[in-house]
Amino acid sequence: MADTITLSKPVADFHVHVRDGDMMKLVVPTIKLGGVSVAYIMPNLVPPLTSVADVLAYKSRLETVDPSITYIMTLYLSPAITPDVVHDAAKAGITGVKCYPAGVTTNSEHGVASYAPYYPTFAAMEEEDMVLNLHGECPSAGHIHVLNAEEEFLPTLKDLHARFPKLRIVLEHCTSAAAIQAVKECGPTVAATITAHHLFLTIDNWAGNSFNYCKPVAKFPADKQALLDAATSGDPKFFFGSDSAPHPIVNKEKGKGAAAGVFTQTHAAAYVAEAFDQLGKLDRIEAFLCEFGRQFYKIREKKAEWSVVLKNEQNIVPPLLGNGEFAVVPFKAGEKLNWKVEIVGL
After folding, report:
1. What pLDDT is recorded for position 107?
2. Which pTM does this prediction carry?
3. Residues 6+ apart with CB under 8 A from 215
4. Which SS3 state, helix, strand or coil, does residue 211 take?
5. Which of 32, 104, 125, 341 has the most CB within a 10 Å radius?
């Protein structure tokens, strides 16, 4: 086993939540700490980002905190995202549109109830070569619940791919063996992100522990193994998207209505190194963290003036980031990792 791994480029994280206001100021500096230079930013703020002007203003706020990061921006799919808005967004350099099913996760109250009304929008995105980012769950109702919501969504993924075969689609934060298989069965314009925390978690880890609770929820051991196999497979359809989601500790400790989200940004690459090392697949880590996502998104990025070295050294995850009402509990808080991220050249 190598003691150090020097990445040829810093990590590209294709699913990042950094919120706004004071939380944004706390979290944005941690992007680089996790080894990341490219961050694909989610639009589910309050209110959501449904105009080109709002997205560009948000990007400006992010760059004020850390201008060295390449922020790849997205719109929140809603009736406001018309074909004309898509064309304007493409001209403005906005890369994707994120689709949230109504009510399934944080700040998704304005999400989608039916996909058919958005077919003209998807056609415009296909024309502009923009990316459709799908939170792949159906809302809980009848026979649908948190453990099968992702699998129940997969026919929708395949239907959208069949209707818009040239539209680049990313099934975000896969959590099930069924999702992995569905992405494999689709053509080359369909890919998927896999988080760091889902490489460790199963249902037993979040049932009773709100700090491991996220949407989609972690599922069964066989599903976790399918995620590990996909992430370490060398298949370019699967790449890193942390879905790092900060919430104030008071919102995670609620007895009822605990916020959904796991915060991994500070140690993003170290968590992944830990998981890959356990499988003896560290030779595949650079492709997963640095190469496949960049290739799929065809991104243009700022040249990072720093590099990332992963070191095989003990690394204790701190119990908290920040203090007071905005304090955030990181994934595996207080636990020992065997890998750490070192930023070189700052």
Report:
1. 64
2. 0.96
3. 104, 105, 106, 135, 137, 146, 260, 261
4. helix
5. 125
